[in-house]
Amino acid sequence: MYFDPWLHRALRLKAAETDRSISDLVNEAVKAVLAEDADDLEAFEVRDQDTDYAFEEVVKDLKRRGKL
Fold it and tell me: d(Cα 2, Cα 21) in Å, to the nearest integer?
């Protein structure tokens, strides 16, 4: 795996400061990104089950209820 020189330098410094390897830091970062993706996918699945409403219906309902 290759990093931009400035990024590799930052990783080396972070690894030295935290007494961890660059590999550990990269693995942790990748796991965090994948966990975020998993959360997003779960949220999409939940929203897929929501009822869809036409914009016009929502506006008419708001007006009917005196919100507009």
Answer: 15
Rounded Cα distance, 21 and 18, in Å: 9
φ/ψ of 38, rounded to 5, equals -65, -40
Both tokens of residue 17?
Answer: 């400061």
Paired tokens of 62: 């708001």
Residue 43, both tokens: 């949220």
* pTM of the predicted structure, to 2 decimals: 0.62
- To the nearest 10°, the Cα dihedral for 12, 15, 20, 21? -20
pLDDT digit string, tens, across residues 15-64: 999 999 999 999 999 999 999 999 999 988 888 887 888 999 999 999 99
Q: Which two tokens stand for residue 23?
A: 């590999």
